[in-house]
């Protein structure tokens, strides 16, 4: 399927073209039911079968151990900023937060409403380059209720190259922007959560992978919609779930399996990122301010040599079918988000445009 438009939006992000085509084909009549999947009961046998298959496919893709529950919930990643502390800590507990950018900062600010918090580490800037803290730089409390971090920050374009070692303290990861981009060892985490709108499906859905021993500890004031135990007991259907988003997520999981799983998609993602970074590194016209040890595979921010050219770059790239390249207002410049659904052809088209733009304005 040939694409003429490539969507580099950080989220809601593009979905695989074949998934969108299948969803379009099934939109009015899903599996011969005569109705759309979004307008049928989530408690009907066909829908429950679809939901169960989506969970199985996700478990297969991520090799999720049997002692972990998989939940499909409302609220996106932000919902779990509250959900995590309310489910696995008491008000007088302390939690460690590793800061790496805006999303880990937002998680910290929300966590401060529910328990004591400590900043275990923060980013550093050395000679204009952004660095993430190393394992040795993490100041961890062995009595903490949990350690929270964001493996990939979409705004700053930084990404941890390692999984923090936290001993017996549960490690909690906001993987909204990096889940399913490569294989990970789920057993190293107490909780993994992710808003769907980057690598899973459309916005409105969040996935929570939680170890069994962390279920059933929610505070009595925890809203029912955030209570992991209730979600487990009702197969994520304590209330009406985001049914269409769940269906689309299931299609994405099947698409990932058809690509060869996470080991295969990892190679594609690394190739895409290397292609874009390699081009920028040899150019004096474009620059990326993240140190090579912690550059994101998923979100690539960059600046032009002359900010006065930003408007021209955005206008002309949009006209060329390269959409949503404007950088976040906090960091400015440009940002190319190249999640799983972005084909290599999209990155190659971007590099070609950037090279041509540099020739004309450099």
UniProtKB/TrEMBL annotation:
Modification N6-(pyridoxal phosphate)lysine occurs at: 198
UniProt keyword terms in alphabetical order: Amino-acid biosynthesis, Aminotransferase, Cytoplasm, Pyridoxal phosphate, Pyridoxine biosynthesis, Serine biosynthesis, Transferase
Subcellular localization(s) per the UniProt record: Cytoplasm
Domain Aminotransferase class V: 5-350
Keyword Ubl conjugation included in the entry's annotation: no
The keyword Amino-acid biosynthesis is assigned to this record: yes
Gene Ontology molecular-function annotations: O-phospho-L-serine:2-oxoglutarate aminotransferase activity
Swiss-Prot/TrEMBL catalytic activity: O-phospho-L-serine + 2-oxoglutarate = 3-phosphooxypyruvate + L-glutamate; 4-(phosphooxy)-L-threonine + 2-oxoglutarate = (R)-3-hydroxy-2-oxo-4-phosphooxybutanoate + L-glutamate
Cofactor(s) this protein requires: pyridoxal 5'-phosphate
Binding-site list for L-glutamate: 43
PROSITE patterns per record: AA_TRANSFER_CLASS_5 (PS00595)
Positions that bind pyridoxal 5'-phosphate: 77-78, 103, 154, 174, 197, 239-240
Cofactor note text: Binds 1 pyridoxal phosphate per subunit.
Primary site of residence: cytoplasm
Residues in the signal sequence: none
Top EC class, one word: transferase
Annotated pathway: Amino-acid biosynthesis; L-serine biosynthesis; L-serine from 3-phospho-D-glycerate: step 2/3; Cofactor biosynthesis; pyridoxine 5'-phosphate biosynthesis; pyridoxine 5'-phosphate from D-erythrose 4-phosphate: step 3/5
Matches recorded under PANTHER family: PHOSPHOSERINE AMINOTRANSFERASE
Summary of the function given for this chain in its UniProt record: Catalyzes the reversible conversion of 3-phosphohydroxypyruvate to phosphoserine and of 3-hydroxy-2-oxo-4-phosphonooxybutanoate to phosphohydroxythreonine.
HAMAP family: SerC_aminotrans_5 (MF_00160)
Subunit-structure text: Homodimer.
UniProt similarity note: Belongs to the class-V pyridoxal-phosphate-dependent aminotransferase family. SerC subfamily.
UniProt name for this protein: Phosphoserine aminotransferase
Organism this protein belongs to: Corallincola platygyrae
């Amino acid at each position: 399927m040939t694409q003429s438009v490539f969507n580099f939006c950080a989220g809601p992000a593009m979905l695989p073209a074949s998934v969108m085509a299948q969803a379009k084909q099934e939109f009015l009549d899903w599996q011969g039911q005569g109705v759309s999947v979004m307008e049928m009961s989530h408690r009907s046998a066909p829908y429950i079968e679809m939901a169960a298959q989506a969970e199985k496919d996700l478990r297969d893709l991520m090799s999720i151990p049997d002692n972990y529950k998989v939940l499909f919930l409302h609220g996106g990643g932000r919902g779990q900023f509250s959900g995590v502390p309310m489910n696995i800590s008491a008000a007088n507990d302390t939690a460690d937060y590793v800061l790496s950018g805006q999303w880990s900062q937002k998680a910290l600010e929300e966590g401060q409403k529910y328990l004591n918090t400590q900043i275990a580490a923060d980013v550093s800037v050395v000679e204009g380059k952004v660095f993430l803290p190393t394992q040795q730089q993490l100041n961890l409390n062995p009595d903490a209720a949990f350690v929270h971090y964001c493996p990939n920050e979409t705004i700053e374009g930084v990404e941890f190259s390692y999984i923090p070692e936290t001993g017996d303290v549960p490690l909690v990861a906001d993987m909204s922007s990096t889940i399913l981009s490569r294989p990970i060892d789920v057993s190293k985490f107490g909780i993994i959560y992710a808003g769907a709108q980057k690598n899973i499906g459309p916005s409105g859905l969040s996935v929570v992978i939680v170890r069994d021993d962390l279920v059933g500890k929610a505070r009595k004031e925890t809203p029912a919609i955030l209570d992991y135990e209730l979600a487990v007991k009702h197969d994520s259907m304590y209330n009406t779930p985001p049914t269409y988003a769940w269906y689309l997520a299931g299609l994405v999981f099947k698409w990932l399996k058809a690509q060869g799983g996470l080991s295969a998609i990892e190679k594609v993602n690394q190739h895409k990122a290397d292609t874009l970074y390699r081009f920028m590194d040899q150019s004096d016209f474009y620059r990326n301010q993240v140190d090579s040890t912690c550059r994101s595979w998923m979100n690539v921010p960059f600046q032009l040599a002359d900010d006065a050219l930003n408007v021209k770059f955005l206008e002309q790239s949009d006209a060329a079918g390269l959409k949503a390249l404007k950088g976040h207002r906090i960091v400015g410049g440009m940002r190319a988000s190249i999640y799983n659904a972005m084909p290599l052809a999209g990155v190659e088209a971007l590099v070609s445009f950037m090279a041509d733009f540099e020739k004309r304005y450099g």
